[in-house]
Amino acid sequence: MILDTARLLLFPALMAFAAASDLFAVLGGMGLHDILLHFGAGAAVLVVAFGCFAMGWVGGGDAKVAASVALWFGFDHLLDYLLYASLLGGALTILLIQFRQWPLPSLLMGQAWLNRLHDKQSGIPYGIALAVGALIVYPQTEWIKAIDLAHLAMR
To answer: What backbone phi and psi angles, to 5 degrees, belong to 122?
Structure first.
């Protein structure tokens, strides 16, 4: 019930936030040059990620997530993001390879999601590393620095 409610409300809220952020970029004084650089970063990552998808190295969703994060971060924070996402993705891959070497305890075998995660034929849920990498870099971006956090703090 809670998960269904979150799915019902989360996507529209995120889309409204994305639209508002794009509007605030223009209203907040982001110039055309900066906007084009952000689009360039997103396009560059999309081209590379699409190539990786075509080769079967990453999933299509992962390629789109990486490109959308690059669009938000621009070139200023892109290298940091890609570094964190790569390191986290590598660690996740190593952990899953180790996890998949051991049989699942019988108590956990009834969990469909865990069975899929444990299946050696399934891929690596790299979206986790992409999201965590983005959350690590996000506080360093202009998007968060533009917010007067002291004003928002509870007194």
So the answer is: -85, 160
In eight-state DSSP terms, residue 103 is P
Q: Cα separation of 92 and 90, whole Å?
A: 5
Degrees to nearest 5, angle at CA 64 with 138 and 68: 35
| Helices vs. strands in the chain: H and E counts, helices first | 7, 0
Q: Which pair of tokens denotes residue 47?
A: 């081209």
SS3 125: coil
Distance (Å, whole) CA 142 – CA 133: 16
Find where tokens 């444990």 sit: 118
pLDDT digits (tens, 9 = 90+) for 60-115: 999 999 999 999 999 999 999 999 999 999 999 999 999 999 988 888 888 888 88
Q: Look up residue 57 and give its two tokens.
A: 């190295």
